[in-house]
Amino acid sequence: MKGKNTLLHQYELFVDHNKLILAIILAVIILLFPFVIGSQYLLTVSVKIGSYVILAMGLNILTGYTGLVSLGHAGFVAIGAYTTSLLTVRYNVNFFIALLAGITLAGIVGILLGMPTLRVSGTYLSIITLGFGEIIKMIAMNWNAVTNGTLGIKNIPKPSIGGFSFTVSNYGLYYLMIFFVIVVSCFCLALVRSKTGRALMAIRTDELAATMMGINVTRYKILAFSLSAIFCALGGGLYATLIGYIDPNTFNFDVSTMILSIVILGGMGTLRGMFIGAIILIALPEVSRFLMEYRFVLYGVILVVMMRFRPQGILGWRSTMPFKLSKHVQNELNDTDLIHQTHVGELAYE
Fold first, then answer.
1. What angle is formed at CA 49 by the lines to CA 45 and CA 51, rounded to 5 degrees?
2. Which of 62, 247, 262, 313 could form a disulfide linkage to 267, CB 3.0–4.6 angstroms apart?
3. How far apart are CA 165 and CA 163, in angstroms?
4. Is residue 333 assigned to a domain?
């Protein structure tokens, strides 16, 4: 265990010392990826991976940072997808305005769901969120006048600005997804490093201790539910425009388990883990289609092996690391330590 921790520490030091170079290399790869592969199928898979990265980061705020497990986040994905699709198809609303309406509605529903679940946790919370996901699915299935029932919504238009349509063929949808992934990633990174992020992680570690420290647990839990719902609705709206057709079965329980599996596999409470989990769990079934029905068996075996030998996830060890201090605080600590050493030296000299 000590050797493993040393290896992980060395890896983290390498990434930290070379993060600028690694970021430039990664940015070049991402930007040139569509021109290198020249395959619309692989681009479609890449856009799908991007949408699930956003969904995973949304659930990670609630489960990874706050410690609240949800099994019904497919409901928030459905809210974002249906709201965006209905406004664009029936009322010819611009995609981005419709997407904003979808994430706003999901945020409000997240607050409403978070309020009655504050008194429960663990298994009971999971059951409540599971029921929420099924309720949203039943509404989409039976509210024929609005959602078109089991027939779903067809011919969902692609996003467009000034006559330019973002499609997979012209690489526009790929770069649009990259833009939203970067925005959500920057927000989550800023959230983790903020006072709010520290409060969420304190609630995850020990809710009672967080309360004794003066943290308003109720407010932060509702905030976590709302932010998580907003990002899942964002991913749902983007996923709907990618596939061009949605119905109630598009957002079944399997979607919730897939999002949760990405968070667990990548490592709860980490940011880079969401990328790794999404790439593995979304790309693997696509590249293993030759296995036909056995590809899902392979997917289950991977999860079982991970839970047996590394239950914290691939990068889960990062979530248990001490909070990184800012440079200003580090400088103050260094100055204090220097003053203390000088004082001790003077006493020894006397």
1. 115
2. 313
3. 6
4. no
Is residue 229 included in any domain, yes or no?
yes
Contact at 8 Å (CB) between 172 and 164? yes
More confident residue, 103 or 38: 103
CATH of residue 271: 1.10.3470
| 252: three-class secondary structure by DSSP | coil
Same domain, 239 and 274: yes
Distance of alpha carbon 154 from alpha carbon 227, whole angstroms? 29
Q: How sure is the predictor about 285, in pLDDT bands with cuts at 50, 70 and 90? A: confident
Helices and strands of the chain, counted as H and E runs:
15, 2
- Looking at the 3D structure of the chain, how many domains does it have? 2
Q: Which amino acid is at 235?
A: G
Return the axis-axis angle of helices 272-287 and 40-60, rounded to nearest 10°.
140
Report the sign of the C-alpha dihedral through residues 63, 131, 82, 278, in that order.
positive
Question: Rounded to an integer, what distance in angstroms lies between the CA atom of residue 158 and that of residue 6?
Answer: 48
Alpha-helical (H) ranges within 166-311 are 172-192, 195-205, 207-212, 217-243, 253-266, 272-287, 295-309
Whether residue 7 sits in one domain with residue 66 = no
Look up the domain containing 166 and give its range. 39-322
Give me the amino acid identity at 258: M
Indicate the pLDDT class of residue 182, thresholds 50, 70 and 90. very high
User: Quick one: tokens of 104?
Assistant: 């706003």
Kind plus residue range of the DSSP H or E element containing 165: strand 164-165
